[in-house]
Amino acid sequence: MNIRTIVVNGILAAVYIAVTMLIQPFGFTNVQFRMSEMLNHLIVFNKKYFFGIVLGVFFANLFFSPMVAYDLIFGVGQSVIALLITIFSMRYVKNVWARMAVNTLVFTFTMFLIAWELKLAFDLPFLFTWLTTATGEFVVMAVGAPIMYAVNLRVRLDKLMEA
């Protein structure tokens, strides 16, 4: 990794943490609208954003989660798994909009891990919790897709990591 990649990932992690802090009450319950999750779409522009996203999730969960131990395992794990699936799918999906659609569906589906976490931590009903967390994730990712696309048109997220 070059210095530029490290710095951009550090800034990305800080932005993720700051946005999560702003919406803290809505990011850690069985109905989650964690707006910082829209940053997951950065992965479709360049897989080098992986570390910034994962570090952002890790530190946001470390600092703000009411169930730190669970969230460091399940929350970070869900992000890693979903990001890796999206990175793998990018070999076959070339269109940016299609990649964002795949990314949205992958993150929405893998919310079963968060539902499982909430079942273990608070004995919430698994299927209903999966439905509510997946719905929140889908809304955030669907709203975030055109926003991240527009940001890319201005900032060129796909070229930002290249020196």
From TrEMBL:
InterPro entries: QueT. Keywords: Membrane, Transmembrane, Transmembrane helix. The chain crosses the membrane at residues 6-28, 49-66, 72-89, 96-116, 128-151. It comes from the Bacteria. Signal peptide: none annotated. This is QueT transporter family protein. The lineage of its organism: Bacteria, Bacillati, Bacillota, Bacilli, Bacillales.
